[in-house]
From TrEMBL:
Record bears the keyword Endoplasmic reticulum: no
Keywords attached to this entry: Cell membrane, Membrane, Transmembrane, Transmembrane helix
Similarity-based family: Belongs to the ThrE exporter (TC 2.A.79) family.
Compartments reported by the entry: Cell membrane
This protein's name: Threonine/serine exporter family protein
Protein's organism: Peptostreptococcus porci
Gene Ontology annotations of biological process type: succinate transport
GO molecular function: transmembrane transporter activity
Membrane topology: Multi-pass membrane protein
Keyword Protease found: no
Length: 258
């Protein structure tokens, strides 16, 4: 272990591994405390006990403030929620810590494989979104079969457009406003032609996939645990998304005179 501690190349590789692990955790929706804990555990398992980790939803910094002053930073441009990948990354972290002398390059390759893991098929993801949205609309009073079907189709369309838009623009606010406008326009249209009595159930049900509920919970968790910057940043992001949804809905309802 002593020889390893004096090997600067090995230390740099270990910090790069920890940085990559932290990046993947942030990208897939892990909490701030989980990211920092995993990164520090990786470093301490190799004997680097003076590592600092600074984490926000958009940047990750790892540095050593005691010896050679190594510092690595990674900006995070896109984030999502993939609990399956988070579970794989947690398992990777635990396994790495228990290894005696792992090959860092092989470990990085394993992280790349986790990063390339495919999620659920698109059709299953959209179908689940549609069923969830339609069921929520039914709870709100849209329990007519036609309202259920229209909410199912509307939520799928809005989610598909949201994913495609954010893929090319990477602007969450724009994608949210566009999806909200489409959802509300469909609800107002079918209300105007007499297919549904009130558009509220369809609109609210279809908008549910856009609500940043997980982000709100994580912001509260970060604030409570003392990660004030990360918690505030997440909370501001939640506020902006809510504002974008409200703006998209309000504009169309105002135009439609409802």
């Amino acid at each position: 272990m002593t020889a390893r501690l004096e090997d600067k190349e090995y230390k740099m590789s270990t910090l790069k591994l920890a940085l990559y692990l932290g990046e993947l955790l942030i990208k897939n929706g892990a909490e701030t405390y989980r990211v920092e804990d995993s990164v520090i555990r990786i470093c301490k398992s190799r004997g680097y006990n003076h590592i600092n980790c600074f984490t926000t939803p958009t940047v990750l910094i790892i540095s050593d403030d005691k010896f050679d002053g190594l510092c690595f930073m990674k900006t995070i441009n896109s984030r999502g929620i993939n609990l399956h990948k988070i579970a794989l990354l947690n398992n990777f972290s635990r396994d790495f810590v228990n290894k005696i002398d792992p090959d860092i390059n092989e470990e990085i390759k394993e992280l790349r494989q986790i990063d390339k893991e495919k999620g659920y098929p698109t059709w299953l993801y959209l179908a689940g979104t549609g069923i969830g949205s339609a069921s929520f609309a039914a709870i709100l009073g849209g329990n007519q079969i036609l309202t259920y079907i229209l909410t199912f189709l509307t939520s799928i369309l809005a989610t598909y457009i949201y994913d495609k838009t954010i893929k090319y623009s990477s602007i969450v606010m724009f994608s949210t406003i566009l999806s909200s406008v489409i959802i509300t326009s469909i609800g107002v249209f079918f209300h105007k032609i007499g297919y549904i009595d009130t558009p509220s159930a369809l609109i609210v049900g279809s908008i549910m996939p856009l609500i940043p509920g997980v982000a709100f919970i994580k912001s509260m968790r970060d604030l409570i645990s003392g990660n004030l910057m990360a918690g505030t940043a997440r909370l501001f992001e939640v506020f902006m998304i809510f504002t974008a949804i409200a703006f998209g809905v309000a504009v169309i309802l105002g135009i439609g005179g409802i």
